[in-house]
Amino acid sequence: MEGWLVLDGYEDEPAAFGVPNYLGFHIRYICGVLEARGVPYTYMTIDEWRMHQKPRLAEPGQRGALRREMSELAGAVVLAGAVVPGKYVRGTPISRREMDDFLAIFPSGQPVLCGGWAIRHWRYDGWTPLRSNMFCAVQDTDASLDHYLSTGEWGHAKRDPEQWTRWAQAGASSKAVTGHPDLTAPDGSPGPLTYEIELYQGCVRFKRGCKFCI
Q1: pTM of the model
Q2: How distant, in Å, are the alpha carbons of 14, 35, 36, 87, 139 from that of 41?
Q3: Which of 93, 127, 135, 151 has its CB surrounded by the most CB atoms within 10 Å?
């Protein structure tokens, strides 16, 4: 792992599919910010965390080694999508317990940015992790990350049209794509990775629109 850790906790919303085999657009925008700035980072899905890092938390020696590895990171961005009713065939969005476990192992004092609808819901329910230098974005997570990288201070922010274009284009070829487990099948053939395209912002049908949104 190097630079910033971008942990894709998956989104699962009617207009923002981000669970495998879909790749959500918000996580691509976040990686696009880092790509556009030339900032080193590591992309990891929550399933990769579950398979390769989570088992290490139960072993004292491995837990300490994982913490030391993370101490070399510049910070972390975690995108947490809400879990919706239904049956998940493959990946499931990050749970609140998993988020707490991640924050417990991530060295205190290092910057952590959390975004996504699950974060808003958990905060509403009273979720208040006791750690310094953590920020929960309630607007655009990517814009909040860019603001922090520019100023060294946390703040809520919304992307403008120029940023939206730049980060979307940079994110299209980011590690969220090239490093995604679904990009290539085990036999080397093209995998089932499918881009989700953002279409819901700016919709003029704020009345009598989609039933799942309005």
Answers
A1: 0.91
A2: 29, 9, 12, 32, 22
A3: 93
